[in-house]
């Protein structure tokens, strides 16, 4: 189904100034679905996602996609916790990934308008993107990530600091993307969201994968005491 | 006060009668400075973007030197360009000394560091904002530069206008390399210097007011054309 997957990670380590912030991590991602990365602050969720995405330098270990790295880099997208708005209109923001891929202007505009409508920004196509509300900006970021129809989409706490309604709308967009065959890997602090979306769970603690498994078993019967405590809402360090 | 008044009235009459000599000088001023501005912007803006985007060994040095050169003394630039372009100089065969081209070269050298420095400041801020997104999208170096230049075009316009201001009012360099030759290389600033030297303060003041007027008109029309300071964009 996907050219990129399976993704095989062996002993991957991310370092900042000789301090190990994530890893060593062994991991395999394949098939369809949503992988949710959970864990306390500073557990290395963001670093792990950037490491997989290729924007964080790999200090040790291997990350192998099923296709050459250069192709893999172009078939994935990343949505940040705080969306970055280009100082352009909504339509130009969404069309930007197509523009840098050399898609003809007319076609790019048409597809951007289509995506804006799908995420509920059809009415504000010509607004200046940096003045949008937080929820609208995150929806724009999603449309901008999904317009290239990525095989894999990474999301770093995409719903942090959003209210219930915006969160629900974004979750609907994510589920629709999954149903179209995009593999999602997202981190979240919101356990409700994790339960709603996850097919697979990675529980990170101090830079390492402490426990992982299918969502059904992880949420009902976690193996480790730390995971149990974390799910219960206790403070885990 | 009498001189100031006569300057005003003389300027007024020179403009409304569309004095051919004044028109010629003013037009040459504009031509030289706008040409220098165009060349300098084409050099300085991509350079500023490159300095913001690319990390290479001499980057800090280049930025520091550009900042220092913002205060480059025009007279010295004029002198160096003079020596290079003079008959016995390395580029003497081109025969450019005492031509408007030489003046354009001198003014370009003077304003490139200014435009590059001011542009670099705002491009650097924009790059800090865009960095994660553009790296994640795996864009090429050239696409980064184009995106930054386009999205900060208003700030770049300000940088260019600062360069225009410095060039249009500059006299030291173009006096040396142009020679203030009537009907050939005389521009507003050199004409003012000449008339002041001759003691014709009225005419000198008149030329001065015309110079200020041109600078204001050019700034306003560029702002108007680029639609800054309007609507919800700023």
UniProtKB/TrEMBL annotation, chain A:
Transmembrane segments: none annotated. Keywords: ATP-binding, Cell membrane, Membrane, Nucleotide-binding, Transport. SMART domains: AAA. InterPro entries: AAA+_ATPase, ABC_transporter-like_ATP-bd, ABC_transporter-like_CS, MetN_ABC_transporter-like, P-loop_NTPase. It is a peripheral membrane protein. Coiled coil: none annotated. Residues 7-231 form the ABC transporter domain. It is found in: Cell membrane. GO terms for molecular function: ATP binding; ATP hydrolysis activity. One of its GO terms (cellular component) is plasma membrane. Belongs to the ABC transporter superfamily. This is Phosphate ABC transporter ATP-binding protein, PhoT family (TC 3.A.1.7.1). It comes from Salipiger thiooxidans.
TrEMBL record, chain B:
It is found in: Cell membrane. GO terms for cellular component: plasma membrane. It comes from the Bacteria. GO terms for biological process: transmembrane transport. Residues 26-222 form the ABC transmembrane type-1 domain. Its main location: membrane. It is a multi-pass membrane protein. PANTHER family: PERMEASE COMPONENT OF TUNGSTATE ABC TRANSPORTER (PTHR43632). This is Tungstate transport system permease protein. The lineage of its organism: Bacteria, Pseudomonadati, Pseudomonadota, Alphaproteobacteria, Rhodobacterales.
């Amino acid at each position: 189904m996907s050219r990129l997957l399976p993704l095989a990670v062996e002993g991957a380590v991310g370092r900042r100034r000789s301090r190990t912030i994530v890893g060593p991590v062994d991991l395999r991602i394949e098939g369809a679905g949503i992988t949710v990365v959970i864990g306390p602050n500073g557990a290395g969720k963001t670093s792990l996602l950037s490491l997989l995405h290729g924007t964080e330098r790999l200090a040790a270990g291997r990350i192998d996609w099923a296709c050459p790295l250069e192709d893999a880099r172009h078939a994935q997208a990343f949505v940040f916790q705080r969306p970055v708005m280009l100082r352009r209109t909504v339509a130009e923001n969404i069309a930007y990934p197509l523009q840098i891929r050399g898609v003809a202007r007319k076609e790019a505009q048409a597809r951007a308008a289509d995506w804006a409508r799908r995420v509920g920004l059809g009415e504000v196509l010509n607004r200046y993107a940096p003045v949008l509300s937080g929820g609208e900006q995150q929806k724009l970021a999603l449309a901008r990530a999904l317009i290239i129809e990525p095989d894999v989409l990474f999301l770093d706490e995409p719903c942090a600091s959003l209210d219930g309604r915006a969160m629900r709308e974004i979750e609907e967009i994510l589920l629709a993307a999954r149903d179209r065959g995009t593999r999602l890997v997202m981190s979240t602090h919101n356990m409700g969201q994790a339960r709603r979306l996850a097919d697979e769970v990675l529980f990170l603690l101090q830079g390492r994968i402490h426990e992982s498994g299918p969502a059904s078993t992880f949420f009902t019967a976690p193996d480790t005491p730390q995971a149990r405590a974390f799910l219960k809402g206790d403070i885990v360090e | 006060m009498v001189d100031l008044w006569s300057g005003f009235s003389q300027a007024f009459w020179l403009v409304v009668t569309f004095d051919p000599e004044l028109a010629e000088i003013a037009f040459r001023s504009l031509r030289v400075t706008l040409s220098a501005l165009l060349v300098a912007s084409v050099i300085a803006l991509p350079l500023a973007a490159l300095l913001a985007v690319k990390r290479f060994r001499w980057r800090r040095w280049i930025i520091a030197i550009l900042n220092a050169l913002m205060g480059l003394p025009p007279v010295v630039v004029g002198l160096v360009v003079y020596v290079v372009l003079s008959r016995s100089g390395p580029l003497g065969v081109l025969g450019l000394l005492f031509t408007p081209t030489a003046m354009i070269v001198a003014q370009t050298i003077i304003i490139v560091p200014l435009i590059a420095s001011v542009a670099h400041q705002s491009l650097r801020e924009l790059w800090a904002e865009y960095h994660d997104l553009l790296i994640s999208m795996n864009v090429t170096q050239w696409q980064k530069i184009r995106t930054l230049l386009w999205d900060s075009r208003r700030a770049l316009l300000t940088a260019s206008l600062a360069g225009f201001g410095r060039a249009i009012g500059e006299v030291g360099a173009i006096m040396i390399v142009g020679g203030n030759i009537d009907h050939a290389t005389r521009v507003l600033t050199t004409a003012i210097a000449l008339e002041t030297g001759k003691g014709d303060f009225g005419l000198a003041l008149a030329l001065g007011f015309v110079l200020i007027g041109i600078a204001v008109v050019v700034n306003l029309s560029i702002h108007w054309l680029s639609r800054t300071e309007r609507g919800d964009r700023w």
